[in-house]
Amino acid sequence: MAENLDPTAAHRRSLTVTTIATLGGVVAAFVSEVTVSDPTSRMGLLVLLGLVIVELGLMRAFGVDIGEFSAKDYFYVAFMTFALWFVTWGVLLTAGVSL
């Protein structure tokens, strides 16, 4: 009920979800770079999946009620994380960075 009184609550919730999902994708790319020895293996996807689960816990810790997430919200978090993971890890692999 208090969220209905605050007109910026929905905006803050969206910013929190988007920020955590995108930064999580970048973190997943760096973790994949460090832990995965063969980029063609599926281990990078397991890292990505693990980070999505961690992100949901972080969102809850930051006050986002993930209990009211719809399938669209979960898809959004997974897609944003995947997109940033894919682009960032692709850049790291192409640039030949070794961490």
UniProtKB/TrEMBL annotation:
InterPro entries: EMC6-arch (IPR043941). This is Uncharacterized protein. It comes from Halobacterium salinarum. The chain crosses the membrane at residues 12-31, 43-62, 74-97. It holds the Pfam family EMC6_arch. Keywords: Membrane, Transmembrane, Transmembrane helix.
